[in-house]
Amino acid sequence: MRFGLKVNAGTWSEAQHWAGIAEDVGFDGLWTGDNMRNPRDPAVPVHDGLTLLAAWAATTSRIRVGALIANAVFRRPTVLAKQAITLDHVSAGRFDLGIGSGLWPTDHNMSGVPWWEPGERAERLAEFVAVVDRLLAGDTRDHAGPHYPYSDAATTPGPIQPRIPLIIAANGAKALTVAAEHGDAWVTFPGAATEDEFGAATVRRAGTLDRLCREHERDPATLRRILLAYGAITPWSSADGFARMVDRYRALGFDEIVCYAPKPEERTVFDKVVAGLAAF
């Protein structure tokens, strides 16, 4: 099992603080989100995700850095591919790129992008990820669209890594197809579901994903399974609770768990857990 720490820092000093802790205690990945603003409270400070990742990439040395998730609502796939290559260079090959179709109306509203109905959202994600995948692989042929046409592309320099890992956020069948076709990893999260509801849904989605992988002639075991633990999943409630979480989601097929940085009242449990993180 691998472990990541997700930090939505309100200040650069806070971002530096948690990056140092994540490296020191042995987390495998350091992650942040990608939203225009806090979707519930505009007074909560939110920094640009990819800019923060560039700063982390330049000021860390061991830990992998990544986006969970780069937001297709207000980003263009050609621009994101260029940003990903630059982040790969700044991090010396330690960058992972998560991509999702967006969730919050506030991202649409603030960026001036009209709301997408579910069918269009799924269609856009498929085209968006395919464009990023082909550009990161060095395929710069013109693309006609329908949503993200471009021409005269170049990706010089190319990435440092032979392949920048693509992580696809997916719950629906169409998005799971994108993960099976293009993803190096699949990430999912409970949202507003209870833990039991999420567990049952995960079994169904994992079965669908396995079938789709086989339809695309790939071994389902080649797709990393990442849990973003939040909502009903509370990793820092107790040390025993953390251990039960790991056991439960390992049994459901996950090989990586990304947890949010603890709140002040959770810090005692966090410190106890991470002191023995290698044991998991």
In short:
The chain is an alpha/beta fold and 280 residues long. It is 42% helix and 15% strand.
Structure, explained:
By secondary structure, the protein is of the alpha/beta class. 42% of the residues lie in helices and 15% in strands. Strands 1-2-3-4-5-6-7-8 form an 8-stranded parallel β-barrel, surrounded by 6 helices. Helix 7 links the parallel strand 6 (185-188) and strand 7. Helix 3 (77-90) packs across helix 5, helix 5 runs parallel beside helix 6 and helix 6 (173-182) crosses helix 7 (195-215). The chain is globular, with a radius of gyration of 18 Å.
Q: What's the Cα radius of gyration?
A: 18 Å
Main structural class: alpha/beta
- Major sheet: arrangement of strands: 1-2-3-4-5-6-7-8
Taken as a percent bin, the fraction of beta residues is 15-25%
Order of helices and strands: EHEHEHEHHEHEHEHEH
Please give the number of β-strands: 8
Low-confidence stretches: none
Query: Kindly state the mean pLDDT as a whole number?
Result: 97
Any idea what the shape is? globular
Total DSSP helices: 9
Distance between the terminal alpha carbons, to the nearest Å? 7 Å
Biggest beta sheet attributes: 8 strands, parallel, barrel
